[in-house]
Design goal:
Largest sheet: none
Number of helices: 8
Number of strands: 0
Number of domains: 2
Helix content: over 70%
Structural class: mainly alpha
Radius of gyration: 23 Å
Length: 184
């Protein structure tokens, strides 16, 4: 049994256990607990689908989930979403789309500081590259550089330059003008 199979079985068992506790709560008339248990049952079924979808081989819905329609649906939905995301990450357009979304998110949270944008975007790209399949990393790196990505070494050099010039270590802006709130 592979690690993925063990993880899938374990998560499916958690989902089925929460489903059983949900049903007990429904019979007992405890609506609040029933709702909570249903949330966790569906959550575990989705996690199970996430794990199974990340594997290249075809995986059927685990027997522990297959006979309960809400758990089966949650599993299949998560499984298909992971597979779809993986397929998109195997195309230039899919990688570009995901990196554009990362850049937009980093831009919205940077307070118009280029240095802060680069730090945030680059960290997200590094995490993305770790999760990306090896044959597509060079392509993703090429696209990311066009959007403002900096290597860890370049980020460190930028940080050193900011500190030497007396700029804010968070935003890179002159401390007298910086909106971060850490300066008096």
């Amino acid at each position: 049994m592979t690690d993925t199979q063990k993880s899938t079985f374990s998560t499916a068992l958690d989902a089925r256990t929460q489903w059983a506790l949900h049903r007990v709560s429904v019979v007992a008339g405890d609506d609040r607990d029933a709702k909570d248990r249903l949330f966790w049952a569906l959550n575990y079924a989705k996690r199970c689908g996430d794990v199974a979808g990340s594997d290249d081989c075809d995986v059927q819905c685990p027997a522990l989930l297959a006979d309960v329609q809400p758990l089966r649906n949650a599993y299949i939905e998560a499984f298909e979403a992971v597979r779809e995301r993986r397929e998109k990450r195997r195309t230039r357009e899919g990688i570009d789309s995901e990196l554009t979304a990362m850049a937009d998110t980093a831009r919205r949270g940077c307070g118009l500081s280029y240095e802060l944008f680069v730090k945030r975007f680059s960290q997200n790209v590094d995490d993305f590259l770790d999760a990306l399949e090896v044959p597509f990393r060079d392509l993703a790196l090429e696209i990311a550089k066009g959007k403002g990505y900096a290597t860890p070494e370049e980020c460190q050099a930028m940080q050193d330059e900011i500190e030497e010039s007396g700029g804010c270590s968070l935003t890179g802006i002159d401390p007298w003008c910086c909106p971060c709130g850490n300066h008096e």
